[in-house]
């Protein structure tokens, strides 16, 4: 039996407008390899990355866009889905048009309406490939585009992702400030540098992806100061 213990970082994100509390578990196995698990209102999403170019999970997650992250967390969750209400209206319009063009007689139109009522969704009916489907939409019926709408499951997941990214950016920034203070002290500049100069004055450096060392070097280029030896 082989047992491996790892350190898991947990974040609880609360008081977000129109969103239940979000719990985030971050696990860094080694530089560039890690896993994230997100929980919100009984739903859970998880993803592992094995090649993050030396970044932590938190850093890598913040650098990715919603589309990529949603695909990693929830598979091929489509951003759009068929709008059944409008799709059925479109299909009934096609039946009426076929009747007016004498492609369907009165009895045929009644049978057509009876047929579509047996299906729960327009997609299900289209995929059946019935004789009626082929008569209305021709030999290329498989490529018929039904009316679409935003997939609310995708919209919801993206809201959760945005919330997690915002929280992680803040925690990443706080950790960056801690490293900034430690570096400043080590070269004999200022103790508690971020507190004395104001944390927000360093945010641009952080957002540019600079390390604390690079940020201090950049800032000191404007100051008449030499590090202690």
Please provide a written account of the structure.
By secondary structure, the protein is an alpha+beta fold. 49% of the residues lie in helices and 16% in strands. The protein is built from 10 helices and 6 strands, in the order E-E-E-E-H-H-E-H-H-H-H-E-H-H-H-H. The protein has helices at 57-63, 66-74, 84-100, 106-116, 122-128, 131-137, 152-186, 193-197, 203-207, 212-220, and strands at 8-13, 22-30, 33-40, 43-49, 80-82, 148-150. The longest helix is centred in the C-terminal third of the chain and has 35 residues, at 152-186. It is elongated.
Helix content: 40-55%
Q: Which consecutive residue ranges, at least 5 long each, have pLDDT under 50? A: none
What is the average of the pLDDT values?
89
How widely separated are the two ends?
52 Å
As a whole number of angstroms, the C-alpha radius of gyration is: 28 Å
Continuous helix count: 10
Helices and strands, in N-to-C order?
A: EEEEHHEHHHHEHHHH
Strand order of the largest sheet: 1-2-3-4
Largest sheet: 4 strands, antiparallel
What share of residues are in beta strands?
15-25%
Silhouette:
elongated
Q: Assign the structural class, choosing from mainly alpha, mainly beta, alpha/beta, alpha+beta, or little secondary structure.
A: alpha+beta
Counting structural domains, the number is 2
């Amino acid at each position: 039996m082989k047992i491996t213990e790892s350190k898991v970082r947990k974040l609880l994100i609360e008081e977000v407008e129109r969103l239940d509390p979000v719990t985030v578990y971050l696990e860094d196995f080694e530089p560039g390899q890690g896993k994230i698990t997100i929980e919100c209102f009984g739903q859970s999403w998880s993803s592992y990355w094995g090649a993050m170019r030396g970044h932590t999970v938190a850093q890598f997650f913040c650098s990715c866009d919603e589309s990529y992250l949603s695909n990693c967390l929830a598979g091929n969750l489509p951003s759009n889905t068929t709008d059944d209400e409008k799709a059925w209206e479109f299909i009934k319009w096609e039946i009426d048009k076929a009747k007016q063009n004498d492609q369907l007689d009165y009895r045929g139109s009644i049978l057509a309406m009876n047929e579509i009522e047996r299906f729960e969704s327009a997609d299900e009916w289209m995929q059946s490939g019935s004789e009626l489907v082929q008569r209305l939409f021709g030999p290329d019926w498989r490529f018929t585009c039904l009316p679409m709408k935003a997939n609310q499951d995708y919209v919801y997941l993206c809201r959760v992702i945005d919330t997690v990214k915002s929280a992680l950016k803040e925690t990443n920034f706080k950790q960056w400030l801690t490293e900034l203070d430690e570096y400043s002290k080590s070269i004999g500049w200022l103790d508690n540098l971020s507190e004395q100069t104001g944390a927000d004055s360093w945010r641009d450096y952080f957002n540019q992806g600079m390390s604390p060392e690079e940020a201090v070097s950049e800032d000191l280029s404007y100051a008449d100061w030499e590090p202690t030896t």
